[in-house]
Amino acid sequence: MAVDNLASALGSPGKFQMILYILLCCNTFFVAWNHLGMAFMGAKTKHHCRVGNTTDINEVVPLFKKGGKKEWDGCKLFVNGSTKEKQSCQNGWTYYLKGREQTIISEWDLVCDDAYKASLATTIYFCGVLVGGLVFGTLSDKFGRRPVLLFCLYSPSVLGILMFLIRDYVAFVILRFILGFVLQGLQAAFYITIVELFALKYRSKVGTVQVIFWAGGVMLTALIAFVIQDWKYIQLFITLTTLLQIGLIWFLPESFRWLIAQKRFDKAEAVVIKIVKFNNLEFPQDIFDDTVEKNKADEKTPTDSKKYTIIDLFRFRVLRKRSVILACIWFSTSIGYYGISLNISSLAGNKYLNFFIGGLLELMAYILTVFVTERFGRRKPLCAYLLMGSIMNIAAGVLSEKADSEALQNLTTALAIIGK
């Protein structure tokens, strides 16, 4: 493709591309923090019915055995000293939180009959992610990568301030839906921009390095939650920090590939001039003119004028089969990954340390994958990873039902984290 020759002429890759690439990859942190932040903001919070200061808790709160340990019932009280008759909590709950820790569960009493609301908040957030994925790809094709990226990058800061000021569960859920919506738009826009920034031969490498930033974001999520602890300030921090990228307003150009595809050749030329000037290169006039001419010629070819949609993925047997297989793989791995990550507080051990170790293992896995795929291709490693992950997660699920000792509980945690 002529436009790929133009991309190659702008550096191999150049200084401008590498600086912009790193800045764009840093946006992965914001996506990871908000996608995974509910692991701590909505962490499992031990509690029991609130009783008077002069009351012996053992006389009024039932005990039950779980994982080999005795725990207080979080939702029932004995009635009038009876050990058989029970009633629901009458005066709220007492939560067991360390230091400055606060969760949405302790904030809005999302326990007992309202326990489902914590999971519902996460579900609604990812509904926003789903809608954002469907909407912003089309918007970035229509209006350009730059405006969509900048809008989705800075709007979370406004949403974060609103969530901090409005202490209401319904408002929180609605704002989190919008947050998931725009953050998925951010992820889609900056990834497309990264891909279009480099020549075709670099695409696999830039995609691999980008997921390494995700692993870094996972580890930072644990550190941020450990330091801040209060869910309100965690949410404020992971949204306001998007403003650290304010410099992209001046540094980020529109994708020259998109401009050429839209026949905005003057603006595309201005972007190319900006890049080559930064890289101390001469403007590739011949290559640029050739790219423009071929683009105009392609416009006149009737066979190239067709607009493709998602439906075209299912028109042909081979493409349909591959699309369905990949969709199933993404669905199952996402369920497993986020299911374990967001419920890390249900596993034995320190939730902050477990989460950090999980991110560290991800980092190691991503780096290893670079070498494994170069040696064995894509299909065999993919099958091997899926098989190993499935075995470990199934084993963790079976063990969790029978883990009545600390050793078995720790083994369950290890299998779940490695399997993830």
TrEMBL record:
Subcellular location: Membrane
GO CC annotation terms, alphabetical: membrane
Residues passing through the membrane, by range: none
SUPFAM superfamilies (UniProt xref): MFS general substrate transporter
Alphabetic keyword roster: Membrane, Transmembrane, Transmembrane helix
Topology in the lipid bilayer: Multi-pass membrane protein
Main localisation: membrane
GO MF term list: transmembrane transporter activity
Superkingdom assignment: Eukaryota
Name of the featured protein: Organic cation transporter -like
